[in-house]
C-alpha cells in the first residue's frame, strides 16, 4: 500500500522535477532564455497582435513608402500604413499557416515513419520508395508549379498544401529512429511480454522520439514560414493584403526597395521578423535536446 | 517444455539483388529443454547462439525444422496464436542499458505488463502495485528506492535485476539469458548468476544460458545440459559437468583450453588443444565444419560431415569422427 | 618505469574529481605487469597518463612517470612528448579494433608513423613490420595492403601490437588487449604478447578487467579500485594468497570451471563511480567486511610487505599485531 | 569494381523510374492549370486595338502548335518525345525547342551555384573544424549559433539583405542582372570583369546560405571523428599533428561530399529566389516566367530538368562515395 | 554570332553616329534564337528599326487615319473609305541593295492574311476587311475595302502592316495562294477548307527564319546575344542621311527593377513606358542627362461591375460607390506618375474627350468625392446602415469583392486603397487576385467576379473607345455589321447592363447600337454619337473611370538630342520611328 501511495505522489514530484530540470537547462545558457522569450513573443503576436490595431490599419496618403522615422519605426508601405503594424498584424496568417504546416508535416511524417519502421517488410519498401521519390522532387519548383493549379485561398489551406509536401524528411528520419529503437532491447522485451502494439508505439517508441519530433515540429514551422513567405514574395500566390511575403513582394517589385533606400524599411520589416523567428527557433532547438533527455536535464 | 528439431536459419542479405551472400546461422539444430530444466549454449562469437536463443524466445523466425512448446508445434500457428506460448519464455538481454526504456521509470516499466495481466485475470489495481514490489524483492532490490527511478540512475547490476524482474511479471516458465552478465562488473556478476540459479530453484523456471564464458554455464545447476555450438551446428552436447570435465570434440577442447589459467590458484590442463588460426574466409561447407582448424583432422573429415550422436563409449553426444577425451581444463592447485 | 604519486582528475559539474589517486608503481625492466580493476576504476586513465595523454576534461594533477632514458613524461610537452610516444612507449589501444584509420591501408598508416618519427629507412620499417606480423601468425604483405574493415578483430589487435612495437619501443602499454575478442583469439593474442615480450626484452603493462588475462600473462599484478592501487605483488602470490579484502572478494567472485560453485561469492554492494568515490578515507570501506572506524577518515597508505604492497588499515593492523 | 557497377545499375534504374514519374506528374499538373492562353491572347490583342476577328485569327496562328488530341494521346506524345530529349516547343520563346531554351538558361544557374557552393564548402569546412575544436568555448558557441541561424534563414532573406545593403544602401556592387549591358560580350577585360562583378552578390548569397549548413555538418562530423578511437590511437603512436589533422579531415569530409553533390542538385531548384532577386536569367527565373506566361512545355521542361539534376546528383554522390570510401568499395554496407 | 568587334561610341556615318541603347518595353527576355521575323512574337524584328510598316499610325486624338510615312511615302484614301492607293517610297531599297517594290507590298499583304490582321482578315463578315489587292505599277498598290461591313478605320488597317522583302519571303506562300484566298471569301466547304489552309500557312509564316535580316528600315539586325540585340545602320535606307545612330542596342531585362537601375545610371538613351514608384522616378530624374517626356496614352482604367450581381444591378449603388471613392487618392497611391485621376466617367480618356464632346463634358456629373451624396445614393438603393456598416436591403452583409490579376501591381494597389476607403465608410471590401491576366480575362468574361478593373477608352478610334463599355462584354456583338444583343451571362456578356438606357436629356438609347454606328462614322458624324454615349456612361455607370494613363517616356540627352516634345503624338510610336524620321541627332 505504501508503494501505491508513493507512486502516485512520485508522478507529481516527477512533473515538478521536469519543470525544474527545464529551468536548469534554460539557465545554463542565457541565449536559450532569449530564444524562449522571442518564441513566446511570436506566439503572442500571432494570437493577439491583430487585436491591438484597427482594421483597416490607419493610412496616411502623404506618407507613401517612407523610410524609418520616429513616427514609423520601420517606415511606411506603399499605402501609407505603418510597417511595424503590418508586420504584427500580418504575423497571424504566416504563423497560422506555418503551424498547420508543421502539424501536418509532423503527424504525417511520424505516422508514416513509425508505421514503416515498425511494420517493415513490403509496406516499408513501398512507403520508403514513395518517400524517396517525394524527397527527390525539389520542393520549391513543385510548389511553384502547384501554385498555378491550387487556389491557396486561406492560411489553413496554405498550411495544408505545404504540410502535404514536406513530410518526407520527417518520415524518413522517424523510420530510421524507429528501426534503431526496434533493435534496442526494450522494444523487443515489450513484445516478448505480450504488450500491445499501441502500447509499444504510444508509450515506448513515441516518448523516446519526443525530442526528435518536437525538434522537427519547430523546424517544420520555420519551413512553413519560409516557403509561404517565399511564394508570396515571388508573387505566384493570390494577393493577401497583410502578409510578410506580400510585403516583400510589394517592397521589391513595386516600391523599388532594392533600387532606392526609401522603401528599405518596408523591406526590412518582414526580413527582421523572419530573422528573429529563425533565431528564436534555433535557440529553442538548441535547448530542446537537453530538456527531453532525463539525464542531461538533471545534471 | 520446449523442443526443437532440425532448426535451420539462413539470413538473407536484404537489398542486394546481385551477389547476395546468405549467412547460414543455424544448420539443423536439435534441442530440448524440459520444464524446470536448464541448458546453456556456448561457442565462439558468431556461431549462432543468439540466433538460436531468439528463436526459442519467439523473437526470430526459423526457416526449416520445428519448434514445439509444451508439445504444440509453432510453425503451424499464426503469429497471434504463437504469442501466448512464447510469452512463457522471456528473454534477458545482454545489455541492460538498452533493455530498459530510458524515458520510463522502473515503476512505469513494470506497470505495463502487470496491468495487462491484471486486465486478463481481472485483478485489481492494488494487485499491480503489490506485484511490482514483489518481483523487485524477488530479484533482491528494494522497491521503495528503485520504483521511482529512471534506468540511468541505477547501476548495471541493478538494471539487469530490473530486467529480470520485468520478465518475472508475466510468470514465465523459462528465462533465456543471452550473455546476461558479460557487461556487468566482475564483482557483481556472480550475484546475477546466483539470482538466476535461485529463481530456477525457487520458482521452477527453466533457464537457458547463452554465454561464451564456459565457467558461468555451471551456474545453471549440475542437472543442466551444455550445448557446444560451432558454425550453426551443435558439436557436443551433454551434462554440464561431463562436458567440462571430459570434452571429446576437439572444438570443445580448444574452447576449454583457451580459458586463461589462474596461475597461483590453478595449474594448466595436461593436454591443451590449441586450434589453428581461424582462417574463416574460405568457408568451405564440405565435410566437418571444424576440419580446417582441427589439429586432429583426417581425410574423412574433409569429405564427410559427422552427425551429433553418442559413439566411442562416451556419455555425451558429439559430432566428431575421432572422439577422444582429453584433459584440457586447468585444475586447482589444491587438487593436485 | 616508475610511477610515483600519480593523480589524475576529471573536471565535472561537481568539480574536479580524481579518477586516479596517488598511484605509485614501479615496472621492472623486462617484466610484465598486469593491472586489474573493474569498470570505472581508472585503469584507462592511468594507462593514458603514462603517455601524458589524458584527454580533457581530465588532467594529471600530481605525480610523475619516470621512464629510463626519457625522464619524467608528465613534464614533457609538444614535440618532445610526441616523439616519446611510439618511439619509447608503445600503446595498444582498448578496443584496438577501432584504432586504425578506416580510410587508409595498414601499410600507409605504417608509413605515416615512420614519417612522423623521422624514420629514414621506410623500406626497412615495412620489412620490420612484415616480420612482426609474420611472427604473430599473419601474412604480413597481405595485412599491410588491407583496410581495417578487411581484417578480423584478432588481426586488428595484432596490427595494433605491431604498430606499438615497430619503432622498437621498449615500454609497451596494453589497455584491455583482448576485450571483445572470443576466447580462442584471446588465447592466441595472449600467447603472442608473452612471446614478443620475451623476445624483445620489453617492459610491458597489461591493463584489463579480467583477472584471468593477467593471471595468464603477468609476472606482477596490481589491483585497482576507485582510482587507487589497493594491492600489488607477484601474480602467483597475489592470486594464491590475496591480502586486501577487495582482492580477496574479487578472486572469490570468479566463477571457476571445477570445484564447488557455491564457494564463489559476489562482493556485496557495487563499485563506485567517479561521483560516489568517497572523498576521504578508504575507497573500499562501503563494501568491506573488515571495516574499522579509522577507514572512514584516513586513506590507508600503501605499505610494502615483503614482495607486496597493500593499502588497507585492517591488513596493516594485523601485520603489526 | 563490380560493386560500383552494381550500385550504378541500381541507381540508374531507380533514376529512370523517378524521371518517368516526375515527367508524368509535371505533365498532368501542367495540363490542369486553369487559364486558356488562346482566349486570353485574343482579349489582349483586342485591347491593343486589333479587330476582334483578326485577333482571333492571329491567336489561332500563334498558338498553332498547341497540344492536339486527347489528353492520353498528348501524354503518349510527351513521353515519346522525352526519349529523344524532345520536350516540345516553348510558346513564349517563339517555338524554340524547350531543350535549347533550358540549355541557354542553365549556364546562368550552374556557374554561380557551383561557385557559391564550392566557396561556402571550403570556408564552411574550415570554420566547421574550428567550431568543433573550440566547441566548448564561447567562440564555438558563436560559430555554432551563427551557423544554425544562417542555415535556418531562407535564401531570399539573405539575398534581399545583401542586395539591400550592398546594392542600395552602400551601392558598391551591382544587383541588376548578370552583366553590365554596355560591355561588348566576348573575351574582353571589361565584359569579364563586369560578369565577375555582377556575380559577387548572387554567389555570396549562395555561399552564405549554404555556409551555415556546412559549418554545422562539418562540426558534427569532426566531433564524431575526434571521438573515434583511431584519432587518439594515432596521437598515442606519436603521429605528427599534420598527419593526424589529415586523418581527421579526410574522415570528416567524406560524408560531406555526399551532401555536397546533393546540395548542388538541390540548389538548382533553389535558385529561383536568388535569380529573381538578382535578375539572373537562369533556370529558376525561367521557371517563374514560364509559370506566369503559361508556357506549358517550358514549365514542364524546367521542372523536369531540375528534378533530373537532383537525381543525377544523387547518383554522382553515391558513386563518388563508393569510389573514395574503401568500405563501400568492397561491398560492405556503410550507414552514412 | 559573337564577334562584333565594335566598341562603344564608335563613330558612324550619317547624322553623327554613335551607339543608341534602348529596351523594348513590351518584351522582357530577348531570345537569341528567335528569327528576324516580325510576325513571330519573340522575333527579332524591332518596330521602326529593322521592322518596317507601310506607315506609322499617329494615334491622333480623334482621327484614326493619320499616319507618318513608312515604306509608303504617301497614300490616297477614297472619300468613302472604299479604297486606298499606296505609293511606295521612290528610293527605298532593302539592305541588300534591291529596291522595294509594289510586289513586296503585295506579298507582305499576303503574309498578313495568313497571320491575321484587321484589314486582311479571312473571317467572313469582318469589319473593315480588304476585298482586293491590286498592283498598279512597280511602286503603287491599290487596296479596296469590302463594303458589306465597312469601317472608318480601313486605311489604318491597311497601312498598319509589316513589309518584308518578297525575294526572301516569297517561298513561304504557295503559288496558288491568291486563288486560295479568293476561295476562302466564298461560302461552303471549299471556303472553309481554304481558310484552314491559310491558317496553317500562318504557322509557317510565324516560324519562318530569314537566313539573314534583310530590312528596309534604318537598321538591320547584326546579332543577338542573350544580353542584347545589336542592330547596325542600313546605308540603303531611304532616309539614311538623317539617321543619327550607327548602332542600336536592345538590352535584355527580366524585371522592372533592372530598367530602373539602367535608367538611374543613365545607361539608356531611351526607354518606353514602365511603371516606377515616385522615389525611383526621382532618382531617375537625377541621372545626368535624364529626361522624361509625358504624353497621352489612349487608355484608361475603370472599376467595372457585374450588373447581374446584387447590389450592383442598382444604378444608385454604382453611383454611391462613385461618390465614395476618392479617385485622386487612388491614383496617388496606385499610379502617381503613370496616370491622372479621371475627372469624371465619360468612357473617353480626358485628353480627347474635350475634342470629341466639347462643352458637353462639363455638363457631366463629376462624381466628386462626397460621402453624404454616397450615403444618400445607398439609401435610395435600399441599402441599410447598421452599426456603421452598410448591408443589403434584406439585411444580409455586403462585401465589395474586387478582383485583379496577380502581377498588376498598380491595380492591386488601387484596389487595396479603395478597400480601405470603403471600409472606412462602412462598406466591407476585399481584394482577390487571380493567378494571371489570361485567367482573369477568362473568369471575368465567365461572370465570376462582382467587381473588377477594366481597361477602357482605347483610342483613338471612336468605335474602339466605346466597344469596351458597350461591346461584347456588355452583350452586343457586331457580326458583319449586324448588331445583336446577348442576355447577361451569355456570349461573353458579363457586365449585364440594360439593353436600353433612358438617358437624361437624350431619351432612350441603345448604347450598343450607337457604338456600332461609330465603326463606319466619320469624325464629324461620330461626335454627337460620342456625346450621347458619354452621357449614358456617365449616368448609368457600367464602370467608374478611375484614372487615365499617362504615356511616360524616359530619354537621355547626354548622347542624343532632338527628342519629341511632351504630348507629341510621336510618343505613341517607337523611338525607331523618331530616328527614321530623322528627328534624333547625335549630340555634338
Ligand atoms: N539479423 C541478421 N542479419 C544477418 N545476419 C545475421 C543476423 N543476425 C545474426 N546474423 C549472423 O548469423 C550468425 C550467427 O549470429 P549470432 O548473433 O547468433 O552469433 P552469436 O553466437 O550470438 O555471437 P556472439 O557471441 O558474437 O553474440 C553470424 O554470422 C551473424 O553475422
Ligand atoms: N572524459 C571524462 N570526463 C569525466 N569523467 C571521466 C572521463 N573519462 C573517464 N571518466 C571517469 O573516470 C573514471 C575512470 O575511467 P577509466 O576510463 O579510466 O576507467 P576504466 O577502469 O578504464 O574503465 P573500463 O573498464 O570501463 O574501461 C570513471 O569513473 C569515469 O567515469
Ligand atoms: Mg550473441
Ligand atoms: Mg578502460
Spell out the blueprint of helices and strands:
The complex is a heteropentamer of chains A (299), B (336), C (321), D (336) and E (588).
Chain B: E1 2-11, E2 23-33, E3 38-42, H1 49-56, E4 64-69, E5 72-73, H2 79-87, E6 89-92, H3 96-99, H4 106-121, H5 125-138, H6 143-146, H7 156-168, E7 174-178, H8 186-203, E8 206-211, H9 214-217, E9 225-230, E10 233-239, H10 240-245, H11 250-257, E11 266-267, H12 299-303, E12 317-318, E13 331-332
Parallel strand pairs in B: 3-8, 3-9, 6-7, 7-8
Antiparallel strand pairs in B: 1-2, 1-4, 4-5, 9-10, 10-12, 11-13
Helix pairs in contact in B: 4-5, 5-7
Chain D: H1 2-31, H2 37-47, H3 52-62, H4 71-83, H5 98-133, H6 138-152, H7 155-169, H8 189-227, H9 229-236, H10 241-278, H11 283-292, H12 296-324, H13 326-329
Helix pairs in contact in D: 1-4, 1-12, 2-3, 5-6, 5-8, 5-10, 5-12, 6-8, 7-8, 7-10, 8-10, 10-11, 10-12, 11-12
Chain E: E1 19-22, E2 52-53, E3 55-57, E4 67-69, E5 72-77, E6 83-88, H1 102-115, E7 130-137, E8 140-145, H2 154-159, E9 162-163, H3 166-169, H4 177-185, H5 189-207, E10 219-224, E11 228-233, E12 247-251, H6 256-264, E13 270-271, H7 278-286, E14 290-305, H8 315-324, H9 327-334, E15 339-341, H10 350-357, H11 360-363, H12 371-380, E16 384-386, E17 389-391, E18 399-405, H13 409-424, E19 428-434, H14 437-445, E20 451-456, H15 462-467, E21 476-479, E22 482-485, E23 501-503, E24 507-509, H16 511-518, H17 523-540, E25 543-556, E26 560-561, H18 575-580, E27 585-586
Helix pairs in contact in E: 1-5, 4-5, 6-7, 8-12, 9-13, 16-17
Describe this structure in words.
The complex is a heteropentamer of chains A (299), B (336), C (321), D (336) and E (588). Chain A is an all-alpha fold and 299 residues long. Chain A has helices spanning 2-28, 30-48, 83-119, 121-136, 139-147, 155-165, 167-183, 185-192, 197-234, 244-254, 264-292, 294-298. Chain A is globular. With 336 residues, chain D is mostly helical. Chain D has a domain at 106-293: MetI-like fold, CATH 1.10.3720. Chain D is 77% helix and 0% strand. Chain D contains 13 helices and no strands. Chain D is globular, with a radius of gyration of 25 Å. The relative contact order of chain D is 0.14. The model of chain D has no long low-confidence stretch (mean pLDDT 80). Chain E is an alpha+beta fold and 588 residues long. Chain E is 29% helix and 23% strand. In chain E, the strands form nine sheets. In chain E, strands 13, 14, 15, 18, 19, 20 and 25 form a seven-stranded mixed beta sheet that branches. In chain E, strands 1-12-11-10 form a four-stranded mixed beta sheet, with no helix packed on it. A four-stranded antiparallel beta sheet of chain E has the order 5-6-8-7. Classes of the chains: A mainly alpha (299), B alpha/beta (336), C alpha/beta (321), D mainly alpha (336), E alpha+beta (588). Chains D and E meet through helix 2, helix 3, helix 5 and helix 11 of D and helix 5, helix 6 and helix 14 of E. Bound molecules: adenosine-5'-triphosphate (ATP) (2 copies) and magnesium ion (MG) (2 copies). One adenosine-5'-triphosphate (ATP) binds next to strand 1 and helix 1 of chain C.
